[in-house]
């Protein structure tokens, strides 16, 4: 089923790690804005490692990779230990030719599947106080080129049911109530003063120095400082900073979502785009994985608050993790509660079901089907840096202005 996607991704991987030169690789804009640039006659496996292996442990964790490597992580990780080694990257099989498949993109993208149960978006689940205007309906072109009736949802991306922050502690003796959370290798850590003081050991990297001699933590303190630090190419003077942008800097931003009323499942999944992958019931967007390799390469941290959110200059406040802090819609069975909608109109549910366990039959996108909810997603664990793996439906779009 994912044969084509796998091949396409492998092609990108091979281009990145070998000296194959292929000029037609110019339309890979569906990747995150933070992806490293694809280079013609690109870097070697060693170069890839020095770029992405943030903690220098000679293997790439899921949190360290992006784009095609992230998309096909499970397939390249042949020994299933959760890490990519140089050997595994070098042995990733090469496709024989890409031409003929490339020509089939249109038709393969559009193969739809009708399940017995498809659940329409319930717009009444959104918290009214979070919306800037009433939800309306409008025809809109989806990612697969078809037009569909969409809900138009306009929000300020500010939660109603929990406070935002804190993110960075200000002193290495601060307790965990003064900071947010950070994640590594699927685990969540409290960013308290001790965590900041201990970063050298945490990442086995002597260059970490987020605090001064007097124990104060180097935190971005103005909008200018946050904007110099919260970007893929972190400005030199903000290396070794705890990055914190405040919601107040971006109060005027408006996010508009077009989400299809009736979701449409496509056989071929789509990589996550740059502008949100879904929306919580409070109007805050779920974003694609945080670009941790860029963040860590500059020895910065951009902690999430306890609700899994932080602020960036583009989108304002947004979530990278589902931690149970937002409105949940309980289910009548033992299934995980619902937490929002993906951009394709399929529901997003919490990671764990009522028995405390995660579903084990999820596809690459973190989705599966049942006869109550139709096709739907489960958020990745809070430490996975991945709310969704990809989108399996024709997705609407999201834009931010202000
Ligand atoms: Zn972010
Ligand atoms: Zn489920």
Please describe what this structure looks like.
With 402 residues, the protein is of the alpha+beta class. It folds into three domains: 89 residues, Recoverin, domain 1 (Orthogonal Bundle); 165 residues, no CATH class; 89 residues, no CATH class. Helices cover 17% and strands 20% of the residues. The protein contains eleven helices and 19 strands. The protein has an eight-stranded mixed β-sheet, with no helix packed on it. A four-stranded antiparallel β-sheet has the order 4-5-8-19, with no helix packed on it. A hairpin with a 4-residue loop joins strand 14 and strand 15. The radius of gyration is 21 Å and the shape is globular. About 11% of the residues have low confidence. One zinc ion (ZN) binds next to strand 16 and strand 17.
Summarize the model shown.
It contains eleven helices and 19 strands. It is an alpha+beta fold. The longest helix has 15 residues, at 3-17.
Tags for this model:
11 helices; binds zinc ion; alpha+beta; 402 residues; Recoverin, domain 1; 3 domains; single chain; globular; 8-stranded mixed sheet
Radius of gyration: 21 Å
The percentage helix is 10-25%
As residue ranges, the low-confidence spans are 10-43, 94-105
Order of helices and strands: HHEHHEHHHEEEEEHHHEEEEHEEEEEEEE
The whole-number mean of residue pLDDT values reads 84
The overall number of domains is 3
Structural class: alpha+beta
Strand content: 15-25%
User: What is the straight-line distance between the termini?
Assistant: 41 Å
Major beta sheet, strand line-up: 12-13-11-10-14-15-17-16
């Amino acid at each position: 089923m994912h044969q084509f996607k796998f091949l396409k991704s492998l092609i990108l991987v091979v281009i990145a790690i070998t000296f194959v030169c292929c000029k037609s690789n110019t339309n890979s804009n569906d990747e995150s804005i933070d992806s490293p640039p694809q280079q013609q006659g690109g870097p070697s496996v060693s170069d890839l490692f020095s770029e992405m292996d943030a903690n220098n442990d000679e293997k790439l964790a899921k949190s360290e990779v992006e784009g095609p490597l992230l998309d096909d992580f499970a397939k390249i990780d042949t020994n299933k230990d959760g890490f990519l080694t140089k050997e595994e990257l070098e042995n990733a099989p090469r496709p024989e030719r890409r031409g003929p498949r490339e020509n089939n993109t249109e038709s393969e993208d559009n193969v739809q599947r009708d399940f017995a149960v498809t659940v329409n978006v319930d717009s009444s689940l959104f918290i009214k106080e979070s919306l800037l205007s009433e939800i309306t309906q409008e025809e809109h072109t989806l990612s697969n080129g078809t037009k569909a009736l969409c809900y138009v949802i306009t929000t300020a991306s500010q939660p109603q049911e929990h406070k935002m922050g804190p993110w960075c502690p200000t002193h290495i003796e601060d307790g965990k109530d003064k900071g947010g959370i950070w994640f590594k290798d699927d685990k969540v850590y409290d960013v308290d003063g001790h965590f900041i003081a201990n970063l050298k050991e945490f990442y086995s990297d002597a260059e970490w120095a987020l605090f001064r001699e007097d124990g104060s933590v180097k935190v971005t303190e103005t909008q200018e400082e946050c904007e110099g630090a919260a970007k893929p190419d972190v400005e030199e003077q903000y290396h070794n900073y705890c990055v914190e942008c405040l919601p107040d800097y971006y109060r005027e931003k408006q996010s508009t979502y077009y989400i299809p009323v009736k979701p449409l499942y496509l056989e071929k999944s789509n990589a996550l785009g740059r502008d949100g992958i879904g929306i919580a019931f409070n109007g805050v967007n779920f974003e694609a994985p945080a670009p941790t390799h860029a963040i860590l390469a500059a020895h910065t941290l951009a902690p999430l608050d306890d609700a899994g959110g932080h602020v960036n200059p583009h989108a304002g406040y947004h979530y990278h993790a589902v931690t149970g802090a937002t409105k949940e819609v309980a289910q009548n069975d033992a299934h995980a509660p619902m937490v929002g909608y993906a951009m394709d109109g399929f529901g997003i549910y919490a990671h764990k079901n009522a028995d405390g366990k995660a579903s084990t039959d999820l596809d690459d996108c973190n989705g599966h089907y049942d006869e109550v909810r139709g096709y739907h997603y489960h958020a990745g664990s809070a430490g996975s840096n991945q709310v969704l793996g990809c989108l399996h439906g024709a997705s609407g779009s999201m834009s931010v202005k202000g």
